[in-house]
Amino acid sequence: MTTTSHQNKRRLRRGAAAVALAAVLGVAAAPAALASPTVAVRVPAARGALISVTRIDLLDRAGVTTELGALGVDTAGVRYGVRAYRLTYATVDPQGRPTTATGLLVLPRGGPARPDLVSDTHGTVAHRDSAPSGGKGHNRLTPYLHASAGRAVAAPDYLGLGGGTGPHPYMDTRSAVTATVDMLKASRTAADRLGRPVTRDVYATGFSQGGQVAMAVGRELSAGRDGLRLRALAPMAGPHDLSGSEIPGIADGRVAPRTAVFYLSYFLTAQNRLHPLYEDPAEVFRPPYARMVEDLFDGTHPEEEIVAALPATPGELLTPAWAENVRAPRGALRTALRANDGACDWKPDVPVRLYAGGADTDVPIANSRACAADLARRGVRAKVVDQGPDADHFTTALRSAPQVVRWFDALRRDGSGATR
Questions:
Q1: Which pLDDT does position 137 carry in this prediction?
Q2: Cβ atoms within 10 A of the Cβ of 333, count?
Q3: For residues 316 and 130, what is the distance between their CA atoms, to the nearest angstrom?
Q4: Which residues, 6+ apart, have CB-to-CB distance to 205 below 8 Å?
Q5: CA–CA separation, 178 vs 157, rounded Å?
Q6: Which of 50, 393, 394, 407 satisfies CB 3.0 to 4.6 Å to 362 for a cystine?
Q7: What pLDDT does residue 224 have?
Q8: Each residue of 208-248: pLDDT tens digit?
Q9: So what's the pLDDT on residue 344?
Q10: Distances (CA, A) of 47 to 2, 177, 181, 222, 285
Q11: Residue 48, class by beta-carbon neighbours within 10 Å (0-12 exposed, 13-18 middle, 19+ buried)?
């Protein structure tokens, strides 16, 4: 890793590992001068219908290599430049009501006439503009990496992030899946309009929160209802096992305390809107955090600001009753966890690899091992690619993403996707 990448790593990890989630998977936003006028159409009602397309970035091969190389990413697989667009499209909210969302479509500047499509779902961010299509965030690393290898990439912002409406329903698996599948549909339409039609083959990957989403999206695509054909699954460091691994890791210290505070605050305030956990934040959060915690996650506060405003440990954040509830979930919390577990409780008929790191104190490797065990009980062998005992959350992403690109390349050359 270069001196520059070491500096970037230190900067990204300042404060807490949770802050790094906002920056690890991307490159700087496009200069405003590169953006083209928005191409808008009448707002439709159908899920996945395209509403508008705006170009936000244009890079040649050297530009992609420079951007990715600055973070210490292996750029050997970079073959083409990329062009990136923000899409606005129709989808539904957690209650099934019509709404809109945004996402990033990245097309390769070269490669097959009809490229395959990668579904790339991002990790935890709290500020709207930290999402892939946002102007402030850095969540473009993996979309650019995959596109530069010759595939089109659909990277949803999720509900309530980017240019979407309302608050983000953090870790609500069902709505993350609908937003992602609808982004794939909108991306196919946009690619056609932009003169670069794509195939219906989808390779699904994602990091952290997005790793769990990728597994759940795979299950949805496997039903074959959306005109899309799942080809492979490659989640990276996903919290696949909230009840059995992630929440116990928060309780016993395997998840770093500051990261645990960030995740817990975000999860509890978001889930309270879907599975009422409390009537008054003071039931859950100690003063002074009870009066500020919901506002911190309104989509307007940078991740660094949120971390700075919250305490250093879950014990300082939670009331005694809720500290015990996290240690041994019950009632509404148990219901919320169960509603968002089970992403690996199905039988994929495509190759699956699970990428994780032995030193990950954001999403412990136990999550990926639990997912592999769930799949094995259904007769599916999924390899857990352990990035080593030194691989924290950040390092797992940097090492895994180029490996996923190479694996997708190999599966594409094989043609059938039948070999794990």
A1: 54
A2: 22
A3: 27
A4: 118, 119, 120, 121, 142, 146, 211, 214, 233, 234, 235, 236, 404, 408
A5: 12
A6: 393
A7: 83
A8: 999 999 999 999 999 887 889 999 999 999 999 999 999 99
A9: 98
A10: 45, 12, 9, 18, 38
A11: buried
What six digits make up the tokens of 158?
A: 């999720």
Q: Which residue has the tokens 């979309």?
A: 143
Q: Cα angle at 356 between 353 and 360, to 5 degrees? A: 170
CATH 3.40.50.1820 in the chain: give the residue spans: 3-241+342-414
Element (H, E) at 354: strand 353-356
Structure tokens at 90: 């129709």
Output the DSSP codes for 62-124: HHHHHHHHTTT---TT--SEEEEEEEEEEEE-TTS-EEEEEEEEEEEESS-SS--EEEEE---
Unique residue bearing structure tokens 């899409």: 87
Q: How are beta strands 201-207 and 229-236 bridged, if at all?
A: parallel
Question: 396 to each of 25, 115, 391, how far by Cα in Å?
Answer: 11, 27, 5
> b vs e for 90-122, b when ≥16 Cβ sit within 10 Å of the residue's Cβ?
bbbbbeeeebbbbbbbbbbbebeeebbbbbbbb
Exposed/middle/buried for 63, CB within 10 Å: 0-12, 13-18, 19+?
middle
Outline where 253-302 has alpha helix (H): 257-271, 293-296
Taking Cα atoms as reference points, which of 234, 232, 260 lies closest to residue 124? 260
Residue of 180, 232, 244 whose CA lies nearest to 383: 232
Map residue 132 onto helix, strand or coil: coil
Pair of tokens at residue 137: 């965030």
Q: What whole-number distance in Å separates Cα of residue 412 and Cα of residue 72?
A: 26
Which pLDDT score is estimated for 396? 97
Class of domain 250-340: mainly alpha
What does each C-alpha distance from 382 to 87, 94, 327 come to in angstroms?
A: 33, 30, 30
Q: Choose between 11 and 406: higher pLDDT.
A: 406
Sign of CA pseudo-dihedral 237, 242, 245, 249: positive
Q: What is the CATH number of domain 3-241+342-414?
A: 3.40.50.1820
pTM: 0.90
CA geometry: angle 60, 66, 68, nearest 5 deg:
100
State the pLDDT confidence band at 310, using cuts at 50, 70 and 90.
very high
Which of these, 257, 267, 101, 271, lies nearest to 186 by C-alpha position?
A: 101
Say whether 234 sits in a helix, a strand or coil.
strand
CA 258 – CA 246 distance, rounded (Å): 14
